[in-house]
Design a protein that fits this description.
Helix content is about 60%, strand content about 0%. The protein contains twelve helices and no strands. The chain is globular and about 55 Å long. About 40% of the residues are buried. The site of fe (ii) ion (FE2) has 6 residues, from loops.
């Protein structure tokens, strides 16, 4: 049992290349997913090692991170969107593919169970209560690592000089007049906002800022603040209503965390 998963990484790279070759129109979103996977794996590795998990759990976290978005490739080839609501649940599709491809056949039963559960749960709005502790920890590692890299992708995309890719911003309109009331309420109340309530690109900026409330480890919370992506995304919001109050509240939380205020302490 060790944390070397290089054979799995090689298989994943070959799988991603195979799927990419089948996309005849726009393969860029698939390249983005392959790069995202590598970044999530690195985030997860940092977290799992820092949290000093037992070696078998570290391995399960790494495998779950590597395979968390396996379903994205088939999802995109079939539906040309990453919106689960308009296509399929990509977490559950990933579980199906892992089983079909027998990717975990060489792992022990405990590892298989944790990895399949964490992949299947990674894209739920919230985790179910009363999960086995190891499943819960692995799922949190993958979810935190995933969110941290989504922040990077969206920030680099929205702050970059190029035009906004509809796929990256979930086909949301970049219309400052459209705001989701539920998203703004979540931000004001210090809760995570829901994808289902998004109305515009600015809502998406707010939602990403509220992920601060859903970081579960000291390492992930620190990275959330230090990467600077959330701050840049939030600072680009209009400082006037309806976004002004949510913008100010979320930026204040980031500033507090930077200074080591009580709000910056991880909950678990
Ligand atoms: Fe995902």
């Amino acid at each position: 049992m060790n944390s070397d998963i290089s054979l799995h990484e090689q298989w994943f790279a070959a799988y991603a290349a195979r799927k990419r070759a089948r996309e005849l129109h726009d393969a860029a979103p698939l390249d983005l997913k392959a790069a995202h996977t590598r970044a999530v794996l690195e985030n997860a590795r940092r977290m799992a090692l820092h949290e000093k998990f037992e070696p078998p759990l570290v391995r399960a976290c790494l495998l779950a991170a590597l395979y968390h978005d396996l379903g994205r490739f088939e999802q995109y080839l079939r539906f040309h969107t990453f919106r689960d609501r308009e296509s399929c649940n990509h977490g559950l599709l990933g579980v199906k593919i892992l089983k079909r491809e027998a990717r975990l056949a060489g792992e022990d039963a405990r590892t298989r169970k944790i990895v399949l559960a964490a992949v299947g749960l990674h894209n739920r709005f919230a985790l179910p209560a009363h999960l086995p502790r190891t499943v819960e920890l692995a799922a949190h590692v993958v979810r935190d690592a995933d969110k941290l890299d989504i922040l990077r992708i969206i920030d680099e995309h929205l702050s970059g000089p190029g035009p906004c890719s509809p796929t990256v911003v979930l086909n949301l309109p970049d219309d400052p007049a459209q705001s989701g009331e539920a998203v703004l309420r979540a931000a004001a109340e210090g809760r995570v906002a829901a994808y289902a309530d998004l109305r515009s690109v600015n809502d998406f900026r707010v939602l990403l800022g509220t992920w601060f409330f859903d970081m579960h480890f000291v390492t992930s919370r620190r990275q959330f603040v230090e990467d600077g992506h959330a701050r840049r995304l939030l600072e680009a919001l209009p400082p006037v209503p309806p976004y002004g109050p949510a913008r100010a509240a979320l930026l204040e939380r980031l500033t507090g965390a930077e200074r080591g205020a009580p709000g910056s302490r991880a909950r678990a």
